[in-house]
Amino acid sequence: MFGAWGSRTAGGALYTGRNLDWKAQTGLSRHKLVLVVHPPPGAGAVPYAAVSFAGLPAAITGMSAAGITVHEAGDDNTEETLDGFIWGLRLRYVMAR
């Protein structure tokens, strides 16, 4: 993942990104997917693009029409659990709202 801003970018804008190295040796990377979501009018949600893999309805990274970017990154430690709102779906929720 990367982030650049301030004196390192034109106009000080923030640029972020993430590579799609998730489960690199499984063959999953041959099926990259950009899911463009246009919520129906009145839904109170923002259009966004989620970058992921076919068959995985989550976001590994993405961006919204509101200028929000998100990136999934695991940092397994004793303070982290796998309980709760699944990260990939949480990222889609954040972009939509």
Structure description:
This protein has a four-stranded antiparallel beta sheet with strand order 3-4-5-6, with helices on one face. A two-stranded antiparallel ribbon has the order 1-2. The chain is mainly beta. The protein contains one helix and six strands. A hairpin with a 7-residue loop joins strand 4 and strand 5 (61-64).
Helix content: 10-25%
Shape: globular
Report the radius of gyration as a whole number of Å. 15 Å
Instruction: Tally the beta strands.
Output: 6
Which oligomeric form is depicted?
single chain
Low-confidence stretches: none
Mean pLDDT: 85
User: Count of DSSP helices?
Assistant: 1
The major β-sheet equals:
4 strands, antiparallel
- Secondary-structure class: mainly beta
The N- and C-terminal alpha carbons lie at a distance of 23 Å
What's this entry about, in short?
Helix content is 10%, strand content 31%. By secondary structure, it is mainly β.
Short key terms for the protein model shown above:
mainly beta, 6 strands, 97 residues, two-stranded antiparallel ribbon, four-stranded antiparallel beta sheet, 1 helix, globular
Lay out the secondary structure.
Blueprint: E1 2-6, E2 12-17, E3 32-37, E4 48-53, E5 61-64, E6 69-71, H1 87-96
Antiparallel strand pairs: 1-2, 3-4, 4-5, 5-6
